[in-house]
Amino acid sequence: MNENLSLGRIAGIHVGLNWSLLVIAGLIAWSLATSILPPAAPGQTAGAYWTAGVVASFVYLASLLAHELAHSVVAMRRGVRVEGITLWLFGGVSRLGSDSASPGVQALITVVGPVTSLLLGAVFLLAAAAAGGGANPGLLAAALSWLGYINIILGVFNLLPAFPLDGGRILQSLIWLRTGDRLRATRIAARIGMVFAFLLIAYGLVTFLVAGSLIGGVWSVFLGWFLLSAARAEETGGLIRQALSGIRVAEVMTPNPVQAPDDINVDEALHSYVLASRHSTFPTHDASGRLSGLLTMAALKNVAPDARATTLVKGVICPLDRVSTARPADPVTNLLGLSEGCSEGRTLVIDSGRLVGIVSPSDISRLLQTSLSGRAQAPTQGAGARSV
Length: 388
Known about the structure:
alpha/beta, CBS-domain, four-stranded mixed sheet
């Protein structure tokens, strides 16, 4: 899920959101202001309902962020690299840059998310009671009560054993522990997730055709379709990981990539680097020689022709904290599934603080095709022209 807006860093973790989250925030605010809060706390003005609805919707989004931060913080403390968090339509995605070392670690990283949501739900319900909840709650108590119930629903729903929901990942961890085979556990959990997805789609169709509930039926079908697609993607991802197992980043990277200074203007970068090289992406360094980010063709194209002579490269690069990094000895499977973002899917390879290579999505695709076809072994360093 691609990020459209960066929210900065929280607890050292990059956080961004996809535009779809703004849509769901608007729908939540509208539902609260027009359908949920008026009957729960009658007698208020339309402006009061909309204010409470907008505030509650953003507090709910903060709850989703807390759910994902719990995953990411525990992952980092257990030695798993976290690339960042992207919030979107169905909640959020914690992008882990490496695999967990054991089923126990994976289960711990997974379970803290639903537990966080359940605890938040309990806190909001207690706050609603303290604010005057009961048979005739005020507007504040009604909004807090909704936040409590929706967080509990979120926590319980995520515990369903439908891969790739948190419950499905916990099931995968248990199967992994029992069989000792992570890939087999992924396949089994993914197929169980597909069964749940089909059941949810069937439920939505029955709800729509028999009970006549348009919104509930369509939502269930849509959610089931999403889970089905995600489960299939996870199963495919397991096969890809199996094909690439044992291959290191050093075997696929382009070594010693050309670096560009970030204090030159865009016009100079185009003529001295882009047009003079077969590459389209360049790591950049500052005046002291320190790595500062990544210059991409997309960033250069966004600069108007008449502004190229006055726009410095440092103003358009993808900053280093938003570029994926790896070590030469890391498994190449760690690079799968990384969000493209402003780095366009590139990964910088760092060894002892020094840039030694770069990996592009086309490198991974070429390696995968070679591995699956069995025509040759993994490519060696520097073999052939690479599009970076």
